[in-house]
Amino acid sequence: VLHLFCAALTEHKILFLSSSYQRLTDACRALLALMFPLKYSFTYVPILPAQLLEVLSTPTPFIIGVHSIFQSETQELLDVVIADLDGGTVNVPECVHISLLPEPLLQQTREALSMVLDPELEVADLAFPPSTISVSSLKMQDKEIRAVFLRLFAQLLQGYRWCLHIIRIHPEPVIRFHKV
């Protein structure tokens, strides 16, 4: 999920494959939801009809869902990250480099997601584990996952004002983003 998240943030082509239209739609919508508060501004097609498979060759970034019966048509795509929802795999081609999160944030996000999705892992190695482990409901899990990614964005974007420069030579001041 973090590879797909980083691929979407860095404007790569992402293709979801599944035999279930519901799963395709849910996966595409979930990826967009994880990007909140940012909005995805490229091509977004949760279920691509068979007649439009040539759209996958477009040079622009996209998030597209395709039924798995068309998997053979997607094999020649060299610059597309393919997530097989039925098999649970993510295939990143050799020519695609996905920039992952900076290291302290990547590990913290993985640990936080692990705690939300499988809280038993935290106490698995304890000699005397607590008698009860609270597992969140699906609705609460959804909110906890959103909170993990919202905190990630807050940590990524903290201090952005230091990178803003005001240029006053124009009649109207211009704000320019310049990473030091």
TrEMBL record:
GO MF annotation: an example = guanyl-nucleotide exchange factor activity
Q: Which UniProt keywords apply?
A: Guanine-nucleotide releasing factor
Q: What's any GO biological process attached to this entry?
A: regulation of Rab protein signal transduction
Ranges for the UDENN domain?
1-180
Q: Gene3D superfamilies of this UniProt entry?
A: 3.40.50.11500
The superkingdom of the source organism is: Eukaryota
Its gene is Sbf1_5
Listed under GO cellular component are:
cytoplasmic vesicle
Q: Which SMART domains does the protein's record reference?
A: DENN (SM00799)
Q: Which Pfam families match?
A: DENN
Protein's name in the database: MTMR5 protein
